[in-house]
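Lab notebook page, bench 4
Experiment: in silico fold of construct C2
Operator: M.H.
Input chain length: 155 residues
Purpose: comparison with the prior construct
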Amino acid sequence: MTANTASEGTPGSRSATGISEIVGVYHADGGVVGESKYFFGKFLGLSHCSLCDITHSPVRRKPDWDRMVQRLGVPVTLLHRNELSPDLVDSVTEYGTPVIMARRDDGEILPLLTSDELDNLSGSVESFESRLTAALAQQAAARETPTPARQTPQH
């Protein structure tokens, strides 16, 4: 994992799901100390982050990741635990790290992929894209499902 952890899709783009941004949060702290600690912890088998395995090879961000982000058409931001904005802290704390969250147009923050789901992807960008696309489709379906109309009792 390198210090360059932000990826952008098409800025300002919106998807049919109403999602304005996808936010990935690593199970590591940023900065020289945080990344060094993670690197040595990983080397010693004491640290693991399945999102790091998906986004980065041992020496740099994966080109497959960058291509996948471009295909999404929704901006993707990658953050470390110590880089969270106040509106993300509670959601990330609730679901743990690593995690993929969605920020909707209305500001709501929803989990898309949890730590267990990311672990099951075995570092594969292709598997991540497939699972993320399914999660986004699920959000679109939930958004399009009409709320049942309230029946007014007839007298």
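Observations: Residues 54 and 123 are 4 Å apart (CA to CA). The first strand starts at residue 19 and ends at 25.
Next step: discuss at group meeting.
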